[in-house]
From TrEMBL:
One of the record's GO molecular function terms: 3'(2'),5'-bisphosphate nucleotidase activity
Transmembrane segments: none
Lineage, opening ranks: Bacteria, Bacillati, Bacillota, Clostridia, Lachnospirales
Enzyme class (EC, first level): hydrolase
Its EC number(s): 3.1.3.7
Species the sequence originates in: [Lactobacillus] rogosae
Signal sequence range: none
Top-level division of the source organism's lineage: Bacteria
Domain DDH stretches: 13-152
Protein name stated in the entry: Bifunctional oligoribonuclease/PAP phosphatase NrnA
Pfam families: DHH, DHHA1
Keywords attached to this entry: Hydrolase
Domain spans labelled DHHA1: 228-310
Length: 317
């Protein structure tokens, strides 16, 4: 796909990504915004996204992000990035559905091809990688390069997850050649933690529980704890990674409370278990080694159910 050709004569374009936008979502949305601003100046480009973390505010176009669609705004084309299903673009679904043409650029294996044109590459590390391949290489500016690099480092865990390929590194190398400050991007947008984030990380690790012969680990954070430390769910991102690194662990599970008996659940695995299949059993989705879902019930009910599914997967092998 060549994104500018795909847009044809479209003059008013909307761009969005999934709810609770992460680095890849924000990077791909703003990467496309910058690319179109630079190379298709006649297009009225509009970015709609739930407010991303301020850690990503160095990305050019961050200030242009709108959190609501203007009433009666009509789009010739609407592009969704890093999003596997239409229910994950609320509250922008109406703008998307009413557009003349819809395009999805994504890398989720669970993507259900909800747009008119779907460019979905499940083997790609990130939506940014898929997006970059829709660009003319010579037309990528430094601003766009910062966005693409950011998305890649976030979805590869700084080039370490199994989704990282030769092609991923090739694109990252090209972005480095554009003169971006890659060390700062990695430290400030990926590794940096606030003091309270470190405190709640420490607490979650302290209270983590190993089970299934040490192959699984889980931990959870309640709303009261989040209120006490003054953190939101989005700021708990690094906890699941540290749980996953535990020696001997195959599957890490992290839950945080979003309502009464309601949890956001993150799953990560190392080599054997397909966590996207577990998430799908709960109506969620994701990738083989990183997936998530929302569930009702107590922590123990949810973790027990996940444990049963893990046992079934081991039994099938
Ligand atoms: P997370 O644990 O939230 O970092 O999510 C890991 C991966 O699973 C990401 O690629 C998400 O896009 C995907 N994911 C998380 N939650 C859901 C959900 N409720 N539905 C579909 N995919 C999800
Ligand atoms: Mn994402
Ligand atoms: Mn992604």
């Amino acid at each position: 796909m060549n994104i500018i050709k795909e847009l044809g004569a479209a003059k008013v374009v909307g761009i969005t990504g999934h709810i609770r936008p992460d680095g890849d979502c924000t990077g791909s949305v703003l990467g496309l915004y910058n690319y179109l601003k630079d190379n298709a100046p006649d297009i009225d480009v509009n970015v709609y996204l739930e407010q991303p973390s301020d850690k990503l505010s160095y990305l050019n176009g961050f200030d242009a992000i709108k959190n609501v669609i203007e009433p009666d705004k009509k789009f010739d084309a609407f592009i969704v990035l890093d999003c596997s299903s239409i229910d994950r673009i609320e509250p922008f679904a109406d703008g998307f559905k009413n557009a003349d043409k819809t395009i999805c650029i994504d890398h989720h294996i669970s993507n259900d091809s909800f747009a008119d044109v779907n460019n979905v590459i499940p083997t790609a590390s990130s939506a940014c990688e898929v997006l970059y391949d829709t660009f003319d290489a010579g037309k990528v500016s430094r601003n766009t390069a910062e966005c693409i690099y950011t998305g890649i480092i976030h979805d590869t865990g700084v080039f370490k997850y199994s989704c990282t390929s030769f092609h991923t590194m090739e694109i990252a190398g090209k972005m480095m050649q554009m003169g971006i400050d890659y060390s700062d991007i990695i430290d400030n947008s990926f590794y940096k933690k606030s003091y309270v984030q470190n405190q709640i990380l420490g607490r979650a690790l302290l209270e983590s529980v190993l089970f299934y012969d040490g192959k699984c680990i889980f931990s959870s954070v309640t709303r009261d704890e989040m209120d006490f430390y003054g953190v939101t769910g989005r700021e708990l991102g690094g906890i699941i990674e540290q749980l996953r690194l535990t020696d001997g662990v195959e599957v890490a599970i992290f839950l945080y409370e979003t309502g009464d008996n309601e949890y956001k659940v993150s799953l990560r695995s190392k080599k054997e278990i397909d966590v996207s299949r577990i998430a799908a059993c709960f109506g969620g989705g994701g990738h083989i080694r990183a997936a998530g879902f929302n569930a009702k019930g107590t922590v123990y009910e949810i973790v027990n159910r996940i444990g049963e599914i893990i046992e079934q997967q081991y039994a099938q092998e």
